[in-house]
Structure formats: C-alpha cells, structure tokens
Amino acid sequence: MRILLASLLVCSAAQVASASIQLDFGKFAASELPAGPLNTPQGERGYGFGAPITINGVGLDLYAWNTTNATTGPPLTSQVLSTSVDTANFTRGGTPTQGGSNNAGPYAYLDGRSSGRLGGLGASQELTGSFQADPSSDDNVSGVGSITNGREVVGMIFASSATIDVLSFRDLDHYADRFTSTNLIDVTFDSGNTWETISPSSVDGTYDFGGRLVSQGDIFGLAFNNTQFYLTSAAINVVPEPLAVFTWFGLASIGGIMIKRFKQG
Questions:
Q1: DSSP string spanning 205-261?
Q2: CA-to-CA distance for 192 and 195, rounded, in angstroms?
Q3: CA angle 50–227–188, rounded 5-degree value
Q4: Dist. CA 126–CA 93, nearest whole Å
Q5: How does residue 71 score in pLDDT terms, banded at 50, 70 and 90?
Q6: Phi and psi of 120, rounded to 5°?
Q7: Contact 125, 144 (CB under 8 A)
Q8: What separation in angstroms does the CA of 3 have from each of 6, 171, 197, 235?
C-alpha cells in the first residue's frame, strides 16, 4: 500500500513540476523530429495568423506582423482578438489559401536547412500556392522593403504559461557563429506592450533569458532591429496550471493521512 501511494505521489509530482522542453523550430521545419502527434505538422512552409502547431508536445500558435517601429508598436492583445487593424503601424497575414503577389502577408515561416545548416522560424511577405516563401529568399525575419522603416515580427502564444531560457538564432545565411555585438534583435514578452533589445552570442548564436515568464495568452515576439535572423530553437519550461498544483497537494495530503493510518493500524 505504501509503495502504491509513493508511486502515485511521485507520478503526480512529475506532472506538476515545470517541464523543460526544447522547441526545435529548425529541425521541425526540416522534418527531423520524431513523427507523430507530438510534432505536427512538420515541414518547411508558411502559416497564417494564429496557426497552431505542436513541437515536442508543446502546443503553440504562430503569428507574424509588420510594424513601422517594433519598439513602440501597438500592443497586440486586442489585435489578436479583433479583426480590426491599425494600418498605420500594424498589418497581419491572413489565412494562406492562395499564392501570388496579392497575398495578405506577412506569414510566420518555418525554414529548413540550407547547405546543411539549420534554419528555423522566420517570416515571408508572400507565399506560393503550396505555402512556400515567394521569393524563396524571403523566409527570415527582416526589414520590409515596401514599408518605410518597416520591420517584420514573429511571435507565438503557448497553450499555457511558460518561462523562456536559452534561444538559439541563425543569421540570414543559416550561420550561428557570425553574430557580433552590433547585431540586434528586439523582444517582447507581453504582446508588444514593452520591448527590449538583445544581441546573440558571437560564439554560437544563443541568448539566455534565464527563465523569463510569458503568461498564458500573451505573445512572445521577436522583431527585426538591424539583423536578419531565424529562431532555430527555444528552451522553455511549461508552468504548471493551478488546478494541477491543487491536485498534487490534495493527493499529498490524502496520501499522508492514509500512510499515518496504515502505520497506526
């Protein structure tokens, strides 16, 4: 009986504990992750605004938008929930149902390998009928030539709250070790309400946020500052839901009472 209770409590604790997960956008785009429902739909392609994907069992929705000033752009929460668009600062991609020059981009884009080097999450202003970047070179996060001071932004909403640890970036040529201290990327953890600027490591293209929180329902976004890039991977921790925590403490209390009674008996 004690062994059974101990096993139940250990399993419950494992479910409640924060789960560390590697979101391999580059390998996902290259269809190199294990096949099945934990990684779907794999492959290189573009996605409409709010499109859902699952990587290593984590559900997230992808977003991309253009802004004329990423660091002071409008908050996105109301934009995500509404069909209205602030055309002066904000445009968003629709559902990519057709290709050609009349696409209403930008679109979040997952790019595979180039000369053997991984890509990752980027953006494309237009897609072909098979959801490929058009032109094929327009697949990373960059400036928007058709908009004065235009910048592309990509983002994601997680199915539950999460903390962000190490991000891994590649440059426009898919290299991880060619960034310098002058290569800048803008980041938001709260749907565009506030922004900050980072510079990936010149050694391996990484940046460690050390567990920064993204609340459930908020967009975690990355914007072009002065450097074209792909987000190749992200190490995150899924934050336990309150109900799961309550269940764990409830099980622990019941288990303690039962063990005590077992000893007394």
A1: SEEEEEEEEE-TTPPEEEEESS--EEEEEEEEEEPPPHHHHHHHHHHHHHHHHHHHH
A2: 7
A3: 45
A4: 9
A5: low
A6: 150, -150
A7: yes
A8: 5, 53, 51, 34
Residues 6 or more apart in contact with residue 115 via CB below 8 angstroms: 174
Tokens of residue 55, six digits: 């990587």
Prediction pTM value: 0.79
143-176: pLDDT as tens digits: 876 666 678 889 999 988 999 999 999 999 999 9
For residue 248, the model assigns a pLDDT of 41
Residues composing the chain: 265
Evaluate whether 231 touches 167 at the Cβ level (below 8 Å): yes
Tens of pLDDT, residue by residue over 196-226, are 999 999 999 999 999 999 999 888 999 999 9
Element (H, E) at 263: helix 242-264
Return the closest-CA partner of residue 12 out of 239, 237, 258, 251: 251
